[in-house]
Amino acid sequence: MAQQLRPVSRPRLYEVIVEQICAYIDDAGLAPGDRLPAERELAAKLGVSRASVSQALVALEVQGVLAVRHGDGAVLVGRPSEERAVAALREHADRLPDIIEARQALEVKIAALAAARRTDDELAAIESALATMESEIADGDRGVAGDEQFHEALTVAAHSALLAKLMREMAGLIRESRIESLSQRGRPRASLEGHRRIAEAVRRQDPDAAAAAMDDHLKLVSDVDLLRVDENSSDR
């Protein structure tokens, strides 16, 4: 019986860039703590846009291969292999919609509970996290630490031991979606505004408004380049 032909998979551009960056790290003998060339230089050498390079660097950051630090650029954390890096990137892309779906199921409820149950001290912690995020963004960072603190403070204010346990168990996966989202152009400021709306509803002790604001925020989180069709994919 004739073997059935199957569609040929076409790697997306950022997958090819990830392969090239991993090969460069290996060829250059870079070690943890070493810096990669600037995005502009990588884009020029690869003949692609800075946006495409940025997306590939984010993919490697999510995997823990790189750390992107304000003022330092991309710093190597661990030595990757080309094959494993691309496989991990595809796994991340496959599970990202599930992560966002789980966040919607948990965090919309957490926001509503926080609005109903928060104490003054817990509200102060939420507002402190907002201030941290705002300061980070003003300094040119993405606000990842402040964002993380905000959601942790909100979870504490919800006073639900089981929801808090589930959030802790998902922390690593949630961090993937957080880094992915806050790396989008213009996203840190938009995310900060979304957090402010959530905090205001919690301040007013309005569960419905808090839930709606969190739902809007997570819809924003789900709008990332990785989940869009890459028109720059090339036949190989």
Automatic annotation (TrEMBL):
InterPro entries: GntR_C, TF_FadR/GntR_C, Tscrpt_reg_HTH_GntR, WH-like_DNA-bd_sf, WH_DNA-bd_sf. Residues 11-79 form the HTH gntR-type domain. SUPFAM superfamilies: GntR ligand-binding domain-like, Winged helix' DNA-binding domain. Keywords: DNA-binding, Transcription, Transcription regulation. CDD domains: WHTH_GntR. It comes from the Bacteria. Pfam families: FCD, GntR. One of its GO terms (molecular function) is DNA-binding transcription factor activity. PANTHER family: TRANSCRIPTIONAL REGULATOR, GNTR FAMILY (PTHR43537), UXU OPERON TRANSCRIPTIONAL REGULATOR (PTHR43537:SF5). This is GntR family transcriptional regulator. It comes from Mycobacterium saskatchewanense.
